[in-house]
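Suppose a colleague, Dr. K., hands you the sequence of a protein chain of 259 amino acids and asks what its three-dimensional shape might be. Before reaching for any lab equipment, you can write down a predicted structure in token form. Begin with the sequence itself:
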Amino acid sequence: MSAPILGLVLAMDGRVVITNRNHTILQVHGTDRMGVVHSMNRQVILLILLCIALFGTDMATAMQPCATFEGGLVAPAQLQVMRDAAAEGRLFQVVPGTSSAEFSVRYLFGKEFHGEMTDIAGCLTMPRSPRLHGQALLLIKANSMTANHPELLPMAQGTQFLDARNYPQMLFAGHLYQSSQPLVWHISGDLTLHGRTRPVLFNINIEVLESRLGDFPVRILLTGDSQVDRRQFNITSHHLLVSDKVDLHLSAELVAWGH
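The predicted structure, expressed as tokens, is then:
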């Protein structure tokens, strides 16, 4: 928890003063026209200001775009680029409960294990023009996984594969760009999984769900596919029974920041 406010001062003249390292932030007068201090008003004011001192900065941070990625998950400069895009209507955020990250892997000579994770947070900036790049961030919680074979779920989340206890999150950070073909998009970036970070390329389709006046829509549906080799992420268990190739699929509904 960050709390840069260092002092709450109750002055003799009835003022309540909040200070931080650099200067006085706010002064609240607690006297009436005759100069008589209302103790009850001052107690309420003190309580309110104490809450601001303890939680105000965290609340302000939580209301910023892409707040999920604070705390060192990504470089502050990258966060700032995405937040600057919000003022231009180019920033989109994943709508909770409407998106999924899925994977499929074959095992035992033709059978398929399909996992789906739905606890996802993400931000996407659309490029200003087709020649420029956008930005993409995605954070996936491994413990939100469901599977087509529930009896194999403990193994998939266990130490032999995803090891969700020690690596509860998967992070993808990349660049969105349009290919030479119209309406064909790609996201090229780094996927951090099982403690390893490796490059991944997604082929992307973007569908406009709700439009508005201007260059950018209100709501979009992003779907994408890729394939990785699990050995690159140091997941090597049961290599004779489980394929090394893992198919990835994303489906994310995103809404423009502020809508």
